[in-house]
Amino acid sequence: MKYNKTIILKNGKECCLRNGIESDGQAVFENFNLTHMQTDYLLSYPDENSFDVTQESRFLKEKSESENEIEIIAMVDNVVVGTAGIEAVGTKYKVRHRAEFGISVAKEFWGIGIGRALMDACIECARDAGYMQLELNVVTENVRAISMYERAGFTEYGRNPRGFNSRKTGFQEVIYMRLEL
Ligand SMILES: CC(C)(COP(=O)(O)OP(=O)(O)OC[C@H]1O[C@@H](n2cnc3c(N)ncnc32)[C@H](O)[C@@H]1OP(=O)(O)O)[C@@H](O)C(=O)NCCC(=O)NCCS
Protein backbone atom coordinates (compact mmCIF):
# COMPACT_ATOMS: atom_id res chain seq x y z
CA MET A 1 0.00 0.00 0.00
CA LYS A 2 1.16 3.52 -0.68
CA TYR A 3 0.53 6.66 1.37
CA ASN A 4 2.02 10.13 1.01
CA LYS A 5 0.55 13.33 2.36
CA THR A 6 1.92 16.57 3.80
CA ILE A 7 -0.06 18.36 6.50
CA ILE A 8 0.37 21.54 8.52
CA LEU A 9 0.52 20.89 12.28
CA LYS A 10 -1.06 22.99 15.04
CA ASN A 11 2.35 24.64 15.59
CA GLY A 12 2.51 25.70 11.92
CA LYS A 13 5.21 23.18 10.97
CA GLU A 14 4.96 20.85 7.99
CA CYS A 15 4.66 17.13 8.65
CA CYS A 16 5.08 14.51 5.94
CA LEU A 17 3.17 11.25 6.40
CA ARG A 18 4.46 8.50 4.15
CA ASN A 19 5.33 4.84 3.93
CA GLY A 20 8.35 3.86 5.93
CA ILE A 21 10.81 2.33 3.46
CA GLU A 22 13.93 0.20 3.75
CA SER A 23 16.28 3.19 4.11
CA ASP A 24 14.26 4.48 7.11
CA GLY A 25 15.26 1.42 9.17
CA GLN A 26 17.77 3.18 11.44
CA ALA A 27 15.52 6.20 12.11
CA VAL A 28 12.45 4.06 12.79
CA PHE A 29 14.48 1.78 15.08
CA GLU A 30 15.60 4.82 17.09
CA ASN A 31 12.06 6.25 17.20
CA PHE A 32 10.72 2.89 18.43
CA ASN A 33 13.25 2.78 21.27
CA LEU A 34 12.52 6.39 22.21
CA THR A 35 8.73 6.12 22.26
CA HIS A 36 8.81 2.80 24.09
CA MET A 37 10.98 4.36 26.78
CA GLN A 38 8.80 7.47 27.13
CA THR A 39 5.50 5.80 27.94
CA ASP A 40 4.31 2.80 29.92
CA TYR A 41 1.24 2.34 27.70
CA LEU A 42 2.86 0.32 24.88
CA LEU A 43 3.18 -3.46 24.68
CA SER A 44 6.96 -3.71 24.98
CA TYR A 45 10.00 -2.10 26.58
CA PRO A 46 12.97 -0.91 24.47
CA ASP A 47 15.05 -3.89 25.68
CA GLU A 48 12.33 -6.17 24.28
CA ASN A 49 12.57 -4.77 20.76
CA SER A 50 12.59 -7.94 18.68
CA PHE A 51 14.15 -6.11 15.69
CA ASP A 52 17.67 -4.85 15.02
CA VAL A 53 18.15 -2.17 12.35
CA THR A 54 18.47 -4.73 9.55
CA GLN A 55 15.25 -6.47 10.57
CA GLU A 56 13.49 -3.10 10.94
CA SER A 57 14.58 -2.18 7.38
CA ARG A 58 13.32 -5.52 6.07
CA PHE A 59 10.01 -5.05 7.93
CA LEU A 60 9.54 -1.59 6.37
CA LYS A 61 10.40 -2.93 2.90
CA GLU A 62 7.83 -5.72 3.27
CA LYS A 63 5.15 -3.31 4.49
CA SER A 64 5.80 -0.85 1.67
CA GLU A 65 5.35 -3.69 -0.83
CA SER A 66 2.31 -5.21 0.90
CA GLU A 67 -1.18 -4.93 -0.61
CA ASN A 68 -3.03 -4.95 2.71
CA GLU A 69 -0.59 -3.83 5.43
CA ILE A 70 1.28 -0.57 5.91
CA GLU A 71 3.67 1.21 8.26
CA ILE A 72 3.35 4.98 8.01
CA ILE A 73 5.96 7.33 9.40
CA ALA A 74 5.52 10.99 10.38
CA MET A 75 8.48 13.23 9.50
CA VAL A 76 9.08 16.74 10.86
CA ASP A 77 12.22 18.57 9.68
CA ASN A 78 13.31 15.28 8.09
CA VAL A 79 13.25 13.44 11.45
CA VAL A 80 10.96 10.47 12.19
CA VAL A 81 8.72 11.65 15.05
CA GLY A 82 6.02 8.96 14.99
CA THR A 83 4.84 5.77 13.38
CA ALA A 84 1.52 3.98 12.94
CA GLY A 85 0.49 0.89 11.11
CA ILE A 86 -2.12 -1.68 10.25
CA GLU A 87 -1.60 -5.42 10.25
CA ALA A 88 -3.95 -8.19 9.20
CA VAL A 89 -5.37 -10.26 12.06
CA GLY A 90 -5.03 -13.34 9.85
CA THR A 91 -5.33 -14.72 6.37
CA LYS A 92 -8.13 -17.25 6.97
CA TYR A 93 -11.48 -16.33 5.41
CA LYS A 94 -13.21 -15.91 8.78
CA VAL A 95 -10.78 -13.24 10.03
CA ARG A 96 -9.65 -11.69 6.76
CA HIS A 97 -11.95 -8.70 7.31
CA ARG A 98 -10.10 -7.62 10.49
CA ALA A 99 -6.95 -5.51 10.93
CA GLU A 100 -5.05 -4.30 13.99
CA PHE A 101 -3.90 -0.74 14.50
CA GLY A 102 -0.88 0.54 16.47
CA ILE A 103 0.59 4.02 16.94
CA SER A 104 3.25 5.97 18.83
CA VAL A 105 4.52 9.53 18.65
CA ALA A 106 7.62 10.96 20.38
CA LYS A 107 6.54 12.84 23.52
CA GLU A 108 8.10 16.13 22.48
CA PHE A 109 5.62 16.17 19.54
CA TRP A 110 2.39 15.26 21.37
CA GLY A 111 -0.65 17.52 21.14
CA ILE A 112 0.01 19.14 17.75
CA GLY A 113 -2.04 16.82 15.53
CA ILE A 114 0.43 14.11 14.50
CA GLY A 115 -1.40 11.25 16.26
CA ARG A 116 -4.72 12.21 14.73
CA ALA A 117 -3.22 12.51 11.25
CA LEU A 118 -1.44 9.13 11.51
CA MET A 119 -4.63 7.48 12.76
CA ASP A 120 -6.76 9.00 9.98
CA ALA A 121 -4.17 7.84 7.43
CA CYS A 122 -4.32 4.28 8.77
CA ILE A 123 -8.13 4.27 8.78
CA GLU A 124 -8.11 5.41 5.14
CA CYS A 125 -5.60 2.69 4.24
CA ALA A 126 -7.59 0.03 6.12
CA ARG A 127 -10.73 0.99 4.13
CA ASP A 128 -8.80 0.98 0.85
CA ALA A 129 -7.41 -2.47 1.65
CA GLY A 130 -10.98 -3.75 2.05
CA TYR A 131 -10.99 -4.45 5.79
CA MET A 132 -14.35 -4.18 7.51
CA GLN A 133 -13.10 -3.77 11.07
CA LEU A 134 -10.08 -2.05 12.64
CA GLU A 135 -9.10 -3.12 16.18
CA LEU A 136 -6.81 -1.95 18.96
CA ASN A 137 -5.92 -2.42 22.63
CA VAL A 138 -5.42 0.53 24.96
CA VAL A 139 -4.52 0.86 28.65
CA THR A 140 -7.41 2.37 30.66
CA GLU A 141 -5.26 5.23 32.00
CA ASN A 142 -4.21 6.28 28.48
CA VAL A 143 -6.87 9.00 28.28
CA ARG A 144 -5.14 10.90 25.48
CA ALA A 145 -5.24 7.87 23.19
CA ILE A 146 -8.76 6.83 24.23
CA SER A 147 -10.18 10.27 23.51
CA MET A 148 -8.46 10.24 20.11
CA TYR A 149 -9.93 6.80 19.31
CA GLU A 150 -13.44 7.73 20.47
CA ARG A 151 -13.42 10.85 18.34
CA ALA A 152 -12.61 8.65 15.33
CA GLY A 153 -15.56 6.38 16.15
CA PHE A 154 -13.84 3.46 17.89
CA THR A 155 -16.04 1.82 20.53
CA GLU A 156 -15.17 -0.44 23.44
CA TYR A 157 -16.09 -4.14 23.21
CA GLY A 158 -14.42 -5.52 26.33
CA ARG A 159 -11.80 -5.20 29.04
CA ASN A 160 -9.02 -7.34 30.45
CA PRO A 161 -8.32 -6.24 34.06
CA ARG A 162 -4.86 -7.87 33.93
CA GLY A 163 -4.12 -7.18 30.27
CA PHE A 164 -0.60 -5.80 30.84
CA ASN A 165 1.80 -6.32 33.74
CA SER A 166 3.87 -3.13 33.97
CA ARG A 167 7.37 -3.28 35.44
CA LYS A 168 6.59 0.04 37.15
CA THR A 169 2.98 -0.14 38.30
CA GLY A 170 1.91 -3.80 38.14
CA PHE A 171 -1.27 -4.86 36.36
CA GLN A 172 -2.81 -2.49 33.85
CA GLU A 173 -6.36 -2.91 32.62
CA VAL A 174 -6.58 -3.09 28.82
CA ILE A 175 -9.62 -1.94 26.84
CA TYR A 176 -10.44 -3.58 23.51
CA MET A 177 -11.81 -1.18 20.89
CA ARG A 178 -13.09 -1.63 17.36
CA LEU A 179 -14.11 0.55 14.45
CA GLU A 180 -16.46 -0.70 11.74
CA LEU A 181 -15.23 0.44 8.35
C1 LIG B 1 -1.75 8.67 21.82
C2 LIG B 1 -0.85 9.46 20.92
C3 LIG B 1 -0.54 8.65 19.67
C4 LIG B 1 -1.56 10.76 20.51
O1 LIG B 1 -0.70 11.45 19.62
P1 LIG B 1 -0.69 13.04 19.54
O2 LIG B 1 0.21 13.42 18.43
O3 LIG B 1 -0.42 13.63 20.87
O4 LIG B 1 -2.21 13.29 19.14
P2 LIG B 1 -2.89 14.63 18.58
O5 LIG B 1 -2.08 15.83 18.89
O6 LIG B 1 -3.24 14.40 17.15
O7 LIG B 1 -4.21 14.64 19.42
C5 LIG B 1 -5.16 13.63 19.16
C6 LIG B 1 -6.24 13.65 20.16
O8 LIG B 1 -5.72 13.33 21.42
C7 LIG B 1 -6.55 13.92 22.41
N1 LIG B 1 -5.72 14.78 23.23
C8 LIG B 1 -4.74 15.61 22.85
N2 LIG B 1 -4.20 16.20 23.93
C9 LIG B 1 -4.84 15.70 24.99
C10 LIG B 1 -4.74 15.90 26.40
N3 LIG B 1 -3.85 16.74 26.92
N4 LIG B 1 -5.57 15.20 27.21
C11 LIG B 1 -6.47 14.33 26.70
N5 LIG B 1 -6.60 14.12 25.38
C12 LIG B 1 -5.81 14.80 24.55
C13 LIG B 1 -7.59 14.73 21.69
O9 LIG B 1 -8.75 13.94 21.51
C14 LIG B 1 -6.95 14.98 20.36
O10 LIG B 1 -7.84 15.16 19.34
P3 LIG B 1 -8.12 16.68 18.79
O11 LIG B 1 -6.81 17.22 18.38
O12 LIG B 1 -9.06 16.44 17.65
O13 LIG B 1 -8.70 17.41 19.95
C15 LIG B 1 0.47 9.86 21.65
O14 LIG B 1 0.13 10.51 22.85
C16 LIG B 1 1.39 8.70 21.96
O15 LIG B 1 2.18 8.29 21.12
N6 LIG B 1 1.32 8.16 23.18
C17 LIG B 1 2.23 7.10 23.61
C18 LIG B 1 2.02 5.83 22.86
C19 LIG B 1 0.59 5.37 22.98
O16 LIG B 1 -0.02 5.52 24.01
N7 LIG B 1 0.09 4.80 21.87
C20 LIG B 1 -1.26 4.27 21.85
C21 LIG B 1 -1.27 2.91 22.46
S1 LIG B 1 -2.92 2.24 22.42
From TrEMBL:
<dbReference type="Pfam" id="PF00583">
    <property type="entry name" value="Acetyltransf_1"/>
</dbReference>
<dbReference type="GO" id="GO:0016747">
    <property type="term" value="F:acyltransferase activity, transferring groups other than amino-acyl groups"/>
</dbReference>
<dbReference type="InterPro" id="IPR000182">
    <property type="entry name" value="GNAT_dom"/>
</dbReference>
<keyword id="KW-0808">Transferase</keyword>
<feature type="domain" description="N-acetyltransferase">
    <location>
        <begin position="32"/>
        <end position="181"/>
    </location>
</feature>
<protein>
    <submittedName>
        <fullName>GCN5-related N-acetyltransferase</fullName>
    </submittedName>
</protein>
<dbReference type="InterPro" id="IPR016181">
    <property type="entry name" value="Acyl_CoA_acyltransferase"/>
</dbReference>
